[in-house]
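Technical annex, item 7. During the second reporting period the consortium partners agreed on a shared format for inverse folding records so that results from different sites could be compared directly. Each record opens with the tokenized structure and is followed by the designed sequence. A conforming record, contributed by the partner at site C, is shown below for reference.
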């Protein structure tokens, strides 16, 4: 019989296994300690609802976040990253810079990439890149150009060269 890892007195009846950042953690809790951590499952009354489990465990998962993600705030408006995760809305333009790495990771998970790779509106103003984004894109194009030349794909290399010239002209 396993005992509760919090109070070390009662028998553990709530077993939780978490995998965070490729690290598996097992927790064994009694119903009282599980309720204190926000994991009241309704087992005492016999009512069992999976949404209660998932909804009530959000506070428990915060214990596993790195400290910089728990307290990350926008320097301009003071919005917490956790508040952004709940609402899905940023508070000001400064939030994009404050949460850049988290937003990049989020966009990559959702869309497969963090930068636009589709068509641009032909009738609109030329797309402006930040200096960092333009530099990253130029490095990608240079690598693709070198690979095209190595493959002796000179038509593709010419298109890449033209794209590099266009990007350098628009560099913001």
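Designed sequence (site C submission):
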């Amino acid at each position: 019989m396993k005992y509760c890892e919090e109070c070390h007195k009662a028998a553990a009846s709530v077993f939780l296994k978490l995998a965070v950042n490729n690290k598996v953690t097992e927790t064994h809790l009694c119903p009282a300690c599980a309720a204190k951590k926000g994991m009241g499952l309704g087992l005492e009354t016999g009512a069992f609802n999976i949404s209660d489990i998932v909804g009530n465990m959000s506070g428990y998962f915060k214990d596993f976040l790195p400290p910089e993600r728990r307290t990350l705030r926008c320097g301009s408006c003071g919005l917490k990253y956790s508040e952004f995760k709940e609402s899905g809305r940023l508070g000001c333009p400064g939030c994009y810079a404050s949460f850049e790495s988290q937003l990049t990771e989020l966009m990559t998970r959702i869309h497969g990439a963090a930068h636009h790779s589709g068509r641009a509106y032909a009738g609109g103003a030329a797309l402006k890149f930040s200096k960092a984004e333009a530099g990253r894109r130029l490095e990608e194009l240079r690598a693709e150009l070198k690979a095209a030349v190595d493959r002796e794909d000179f038509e593709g290399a010419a298109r890449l060269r033209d794209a590099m010239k266009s990007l350098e002209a628009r560099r913001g």
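The chain has a mean pLDDT of 76. The chain has three domains: 14-64, 67-111, 131-170. All partners now use this format for quarterly exchanges.
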